[in-house]
Automatic annotation (TrEMBL):
Residues of the Glutamine amidotransferase type-2 domain: 2-213
Family annotation (Gene3D superfamilies): Glutamine Phosphoribosylpyrophosphate, subunit 1, domain 1 (3.60.20.10), HUPs (3.40.50.620)
Pfam families named in the record: Asn_synthase (PF00733), GATase_7 (PF13537)
Protein name: asparagine synthase (glutamine-hydrolyzing)
Alphabetic keyword roster: ATP-binding, Glutamine amidotransferase, Ligase, Nucleotide-binding
Catalytic activity of the protein: L-aspartate + L-glutamine + ATP + H2O = L-asparagine + L-glutamate + AMP + diphosphate + H(+)
Pathway(s) served: Amino-acid biosynthesis; L-asparagine biosynthesis; L-asparagine from L-aspartate (L-Gln route): step 1/1
Any one Gene Ontology molecular-function term assigned to this protein's record: asparagine synthase (glutamine-hydrolyzing) activity
Uppermost EC category: ligase
Organism from which the protein derives: Marinoscillum luteum
Protein EC: 6.3.5.4
Coiled-coil intervals: none
Family of the protein in this entry: Belongs to the asparagine synthetase family.
Gene this chain is encoded by: asnB
Length: 626
């Protein structure tokens, strides 16, 4: 797990930018605190920051070259099947000089070229420079677990793990209007867009070849959605899931440094811990609790799992002040506006876990491929014609008037009923986008000044073309390409790498994902329950109490902070009329309306929008004012 960056020059003007390679590499220090190296010639340069995981000796350092000196690689990630590939390559006569998966990846590319990508089981973003042909090959893993951003113009191609490294090359800074619109609608910016014009994220499952001045991007992995899944029986599905997931977990236990696992007390992380503890005695597990909000505290359930599997369990009990103390560290680390406030507890969990281990397993991905969100039940219900649905829809005016909040069971139920009633009136594509969003186009139209508005929403339009029949597996495939790739995975990557921690996600093993989408929808969810096959497959193993508890995420107490500890910051950065009007991005009248709503008796989800504004203004100050 590392940070990578590099440059490929198309001409003499582009070559001047090689002087920035060292500075760009330094900006990735937190991703790779162990070793710093760069390499360059007259055409290309590669920079690497290493977090040593496999073969921690100097032989595994990067940039790495082959024995001929022709090929050079920088690599971020892990290849779990590298030992199998190594044996195959040795049988073909390849000689290795380290025990690292990086050297295996380099030799595999030399042997098989782009055809190596389907053979790789792991998560990765890497670049390989062929010095003889003066070509550069870039690739990103199937699901976007590892990030890769790039910029191309007439003089150069730049790439990096993070936008902050790209900025060291002296890029122009202009906000991408479509990305800005999507940020305030989704709270994150999905690939291939970035917040800056001219900077893109390489799409998951894609590679890029730069040769003879031409840049070619191709897809090597197609998401495995099927309209007619072959697996329909629960017994068969359960057995396949246990076998496939067990191998995925075992593959991810390979490390030459201390390893542990996150344990939230939910089904997903508990399943991973159950399987990992079969292989690792006294597995180290880590949870966070919330002293000031027992509604969201899950440490009791996590402890039940830890006791059941006899793990070496650590609980970090946080107060709201503990969360608040890390706000600036979190918003200062992110490269582009990112409004998922649950990044805060993930940052703290990663920070505390890193004091004990260098690698942690997590349960991310299960909600998207096995159906774990409330909106999935709402989707199934919305497909039915029933008296219940008609009643909920007819009471839309009532839900509109009642107080709605995610922080309490009653008000959260009202919030969900209001969203369900609204969604009932929409087409399939409109409904999906509505359930994925926090604001609508009308609200954003009021918020943004005319110079920052756009009618060009190519990402949204292209994504919604994938919605055809509206069955649940189709929704899960969309969520995997929107929510998972745009929000959940970047959140974990950013917050863990900010603390030098590698997080591995067994649920996103390609075999697990393929198997999940070979299951009929009824095995995953009905309107009465979710993640059916996952829950049933491990029912005899996990504590029964986990099956009696409701599912809920964690909500950072933003509203309380905005009325208290962060009120001064809001007044200075978000609700400052002079600064807002001078910035000329937001309409002051709408900002004033949002402020009034925030401090009213019924703020609803306004705190989410205000958090997005707060995050944006912090980012804008760093990137434009500094």
């Amino acid at each position: 797990m590392c940070g990578i960056t590099g440059i490929f020059a198309f001409n003499s003007v582009g070559r001047i930018n090689l002087v920035h390679l060292e500075a760009a590499t330094r900006r990735l220090e937190k991703r790779g605190p162990d070793v710093h190296n760069t390499w360059f010639d007259e055409v290309a340069g590669l920079g690497h920051r290493r977090l040593s995981i496999i073969d921690t000796s100097a032989a595994g350092n990067q940039p790495m070259k082959d024995v001929s000196g022709r090929y050079h690689i920088v690599f971020n990630g892990e290849i779990y099947n590298y030992k199998h590939l190594r044996t195959e390559l040795q049988n073909e006569g390849c000689v290795f000089h380290s025990d690292s998966d990086t050297e295996v990846l380099l030799q595999a590319y030399i042997r098989w070229g782009q055809e190596v990508l389907p053979r790789l089981n792991g998560f990765f973003a890497f670049a390989i420079y062929d010095q003889e042909e003066e070509s550069l090959f870039l690739a990103r893993d199937r699901f976007g677990i590892k990030p890769l951003v790039y910029h191309v113009d007439g003089d150069r191609l730049l790439f990096a793990s993070e936008l902050k490294a790209l900025m060291a090359y002296g890029l122009d800074k202009q906000i991408n209007r479509e990305a800005l619109h999507l940020f305030f609608q989704l709270t994150y910016i999905p690939a291939p867009l970035s917040i800056l014009e001219g900077v893109k994220k390489l799409l998951p499952g894609h590679y890029m070849m730069i040769q003879h001045g031409a840049v070619e991007i191709k897809k090597f992995y197609e998401f495995p959605y099927r309209e007619a899944p072959p697996i329909r029986g629960l017994a068969e599905a359960k057995q396949q899931l246990i076998t496939t997931l067990r191998k995925a977990v075992t593959d991810r236990l390979v490390a030459d440094v201390p390893l542990g696992a996150f344990l939230s007390g939910g089904i997903d992380s508990s399943v991973i811990v159950a399987l990992a503890s079969e292989e690792v005695k006294d597995l180290k597990t880590y949870s966070i609790g919330f002293k000031d909000n027992k509604y969201f505290d899950e440490t009791h359930y996590a402890q039940l799992v830890a006791d059941k599997f006899q793990t070496d369990h650590h609980v970090f009990s946080l107060t709201n002040d503990d969360l608040l103390a890390e706000v600036q560290n979190v918003v200062d680390y992110i490269d582009e506006p990112f409004g998922d406030s649950s990044a805060l507890p993930v940052f703290i969990l990663s920070k505390e876990t890193r004091k004990h281990v260098t690698v942690a397993l997590s349960g991310d991905g299960a909600d998207e491929i096995f159906s774990g969100y409330n909106k999935h039940s709402a989707w199934l219900m919305s497909q039915q014609t029933s008296a219940r649905n008609s009643l909920i829809a007819s009471l839309g005016g009532l839900w509109e008037k009642l107080p709605k909040s995610r922080n309490h069971k009653v008000t959260d139920t009202i919030r969900q009923l209001h969203r369900f009633a609204s969604a009932q009136k929409m087409t399939l594509r409109e409904r999906y986008w509505f359930l994925a969003s926090f604001t609508n186009d009308l609200q954003i139209g009021r918020l943004l000044k005319s110079d920052y508005q756009t009618d060009h929403m190519s990402f949204k339009n292209n994504l919604l073309q994938l919605m055809r029949v509206g069955e649940l597996n189709e929704v899960l495939a969309l969520d995997s390409q929107l929510v998972l790739q745009g929000d959940m995975l970047p959140k974990v990557d950013m917050m863990s790498m900010a603390n030098g921690l590698e997080v591995r996600v067994p649920f996103l093993d390609p075999a697990v994902v393929e198997m999940a989408f070979s299951m009929h929808t009824d095995l995953k969810a009905t309107s009465a329950g979710r993640k059916i096959v996952l829950r049933e497959a491990f029912r005899e193993v996990l504590p029964e109490e986990l099956y009696q508890r409701p599912k809920h995420g964690f909500e950072v107490p933003l509203l309380d902070w905005f009325k208290g500890a962060l009120k001064g910051e809001l007044e200075k950065k978000v609700f400052n009329r002079e600064k807002v009007e001078a910035q000329a991005i937001f309409d002051w009248n709408e900002i004033a309306r949002i402020k009034k709503k925030l401090y009213s008796f019924d703020p609803g989800d306004t705190h989410i929008l205000v958090w997005c504004l707060f995050v944006f203004q912090n980012w804008y100050h760093r990137y434009f004012n500094d």
